[in-house]
Amino acid sequence: MRQVVLDTETTGLEVEQRHRVIEIGCVELFNRRLTGRTFHRYLNPERDIDEGAQQVHGLTRERLAKEPTFSQVHQEFTDFIRDAELIIHNAPFDVAFLNGELARLELALKVHDLCRVLDTLALARQMHPGQRNNLDALCKRYSVDNSRRDYHGALLDARILAEVYLAMTGGQAKLTLSAESDTARSRARHAAPRRAGEGERIVVVRPNENEMAAHEHVLALLDKASGGRTVWRKL
Asked: What is the pTM of this model?
């Protein structure tokens, strides 16, 4: 399964006031592992940046003046995210801004025409109702290092969100694990000597609350993709 973890930075908070995207950061996951492929661009917004937004991401109009516009990179961007599942924290915000950029190009195209979208903020609120569920709070809850996050940056935040998402959904929490290390651990288990007379034991590991929530989330995605015709629901 191909997924793209995405974050943006913008000139302000209101797409209706013609605020623009000024940074896009994406990292690719395939079967819940980083592939090493990224998409990262700073963009010239061709307009002023709100002071409050500058305090969040540290980007100024002068700094971005020589960067490409969205129209110059949109084909590369849409090719990168096409047919993936986008993982975004507070997805309606980023999707609205990206759709606004596509609309300026007079393209009959929206993000949902290109890919599916998973909102990790909505998922976190289901898993942790009544708690703070912004990215910093989730980093603390899942022991994800965000010490380099002095300013919000799209690529850095996408990488942090990838690790948070994997931890939230009950899979690997560290992005440094590789297929080779998994194979090495498997070989070590098979090579471990048994004591004389030791028989096979079946160990039952019951899922915790977070793992059950992640399982239900995956089942919901499969239900949606199959039109509700999944066999296990009928059984």
From this structure: 0.73
Q: Is 57 a catalytic residue?
A: no
Q: Looking at residue 68, which CATH number applies to its domain?
A: 3.30.420.10
In a domain, 203, yes or no: no
Tell me how far apart the alpha carbons of residues 235 and 227 are, in angstroms, rounded to a whole number.
Answer: 16
Q: Domain total for the chain? A: 1
User: By residue range, what is the domain housing residue 49?
Assistant: 2-165
pLDDT, position 96: 98
| Nearest residue to 173 via CA among 139, 197, 220, 196 | 139
Residue 46: predicted pLDDT: 97
**Is 155 part of any domain?**
yes
Q: Which of 152, 190, 215, 217 is catalytic?
A: 152
**Which of 82-86, 121-125, 206-210 shows the lowest per-residue confidence on average (mean pLDDT)?**
206-210
DSSP letter string, 5-30? EEEEEESSS-GGGT--EEEEEEEEEE
Asked if 120 contacts 141 with a C-beta cutoff of 8 angstroms, the reply is: no
Question: Which pLDDT score, from 0 to 100, does residue 35 have?
Answer: 96
Give mean pLDDT, residues 123-152: 91
Q: What is the mean pLDDT of the chain?
A: 84
Contact between 67 and 50 (Cβ < 8 Å): no
What type of residue is 193?
P
State how beta strands 85-88 and 116-119 pair.
Answer: parallel
